[in-house]
Design brief:
- The protein has two domains: 245 residues, Glycosidases (TIM Barrel), CATH 3.20.20; 83 residues, Immunoglobulin-like (Sandwich), CATH 2.60.40.1180.
- The radius of gyration is 26 Å and the shape is globular.
- It has 392 residues and is of the alpha/beta class.
- It is 33% helix and 25% strand.
Amino acid sequence: MTKNKKKSISKFIHSSILFLVALLIIPIFSSWYLPAAETYMPVNLSTLIEIKDANKKPFFPFGFYFLSMNPQQRIKALHEIAAAGFNTMFVFWENLDEYGTFLDEAKRIGVHIITELKHHSNLGIVNEYKDKSAILAWGIADDAGDRNSSDEILAFHQEVKAIDPQHYTYVSISNWTKKWEKYSHVADLIGGQSYPIGYPFDNKPKNLPNDLSEVSYVFNLGYAETQKNNRPVIANLQTFSWKGQRWPTASEVYNMTYQALIAGVKGILFYTYDDDENFIRDHPDIWNQVKSITPEIKKLTPVLLEGNLTKINTKFDDLLAGQWIHDSGIYLILINTSNRETRQVALKIPAKAKGPAQALFSGRPSGMVFQDGNLSGLIKAGDVHIYKLSKE
């Protein structure tokens, strides 16, 4: 063998050794310097989660967040919320003095409680109160997407369920939208925030017809993502003011509520009843408006939970419409999100229906006519119309 051939073989062996070493070292090196990719932990997504109360009956949560840490204020708010017809209250974890008494009273007057768990050290709260039937869910992440990864929240969910498999877990995804895809599987119930009035940041989605229509945008997106994981959406809607901004008007709160319903949500929690900066009772117009919605939600609950929802194309960006078929009735909701434009509409109703169009709730906007399969009439700026038709 010639010297040149020996040198070539030696170089080949040397290069091969270096290549193999590199294959072993690079992954280790990369793990030091490159951010780890998020890997979703396994979770059973095959079964649709339906919200049920302690008696295993279908349930539409409708209530408030409550942030005060004072036990006396907490139980006072519980009675006020119950007296107004609401059925759910989200309570924060600090200072849970007399919490067992609070939960017993909540059960007595028919209010379901979601209790916040701030972190893993709060698992003792789950073990202590897991047998209280007033508990609807454990809140395992607020502003999901801003602090913890989806893997971390899902691991927390699994820890909680290992202690208390009987109750739901709940998260609230922070304002705006890009987090729904990554966080719509991390708990049993997926809340989402939409607080458009006076929103002070610059990350709004483009091309919305107006600020109010953000609610529809957010929860249509959220519904699409959570359906992939068989999770229900609970809307967190605005009854507060951003710092230095105005409160929503009573009509805006009503409009936002029905936008969320048309998007297919299965519960609504208003933020907030009291957070030491915003107290809804200081705004009687808002308080009286949300109280007036409770009998409407009660009447619509079977429709919202059991009916088949179809969105209707209105041909206006700021006009929303939806149809539910339930038992012998066809229920229609039309919403004008504009704050200045009255719309003349003639909507082709997808279902085979017969009139007349009956306004479902007295004292609310109405006046449209159903004829030849079309619902026609005027809908003023900001108004919500709700009708019932009969099946053919």
